[in-house]
Amino acid sequence: MEKQLKVMLVDDEDSIRKVVAHLAQKEGYDFCYASDGEKALQMFAQENPDLIILDVMLPELDGFEVCRRIRQESAVPIILLSAKGDIVDKSVGFNMGADDYMTKPFSPIELALRMKAMFRRAFRLSTESLAEDKDRLIFKDLEINNKTFEVIVRGKKVDLTSKEFELLSFMANHPGQVFTRQQLFDNLWGEKYLGDSGTITVFIRKVREKIELDPGRPEYILTVWGVGYKFAG
């Protein structure tokens, strides 16, 4: 019997709880709920969810801090919800390790599509390497293992979120090829996915901070001015 996927919502608005609970039931997902940040961390440890939908504005601990703490021990997909849609707020969320970001009020249909996309991506990453990938890639002092999803930099393991790893792995498997931000965004989230390709800039910076000796003068992920980015193998 297949494991029933579990969605955990963290939000103090009852209307949001009802919407997400209904979506989960309709899609056949298990559902659990916490109304503040402290309860969210307790529930996460108890329930072991497969996807977290996390509001930014929460009592006790805000969503950014909850996301940061969960990221210290898990790569579970996290979708942040916020009434703010500016790039600064998004940047903070992605810096904390979020995989996606939705602005309130949101369309229940769009949320359902994003949930499905997250589950598809997580399943693919857990069962197979990316198409055309080699299992293990080595570039100077950087090693990328597409089977174990580990990244070793100068002999030490570094922790990347699922989206950060996917971005790095995709680019490393196409060394020298220049990609626009939109192409990278489409690869990570899908061509029909609604979102801002500027998000890629945040992910590029985060990956550079983790793998580059000097993120300001990168050796691996290079900016091609006026076009996009490329991986220099």
UniProtKB/TrEMBL annotation:
A single cellular component GO annotation: protein-DNA complex
Domain OmpR/PhoB-type: 134-233
Gene3D superfamilies linked: 3.40.50.2300, 6.10.250.690, Winged helix-like DNA-binding domain superfamily/Winged helix DNA-binding domain
Any Gene Ontology biological process: regulation of DNA-templated transcription
Residue range(s) of DNA binding per entry: 134-233
Residues annotated with 4-aspartylphosphate modification: D55
Domain spans labelled Response regulatory: 6-119
Molecular function as annotated in GO: phosphorelay response regulator activity; transcription cis-regulatory region binding
Name of this protein: Stage 0 sporulation protein A homolog
Gene source species: Desulfitobacterium dehalogenans
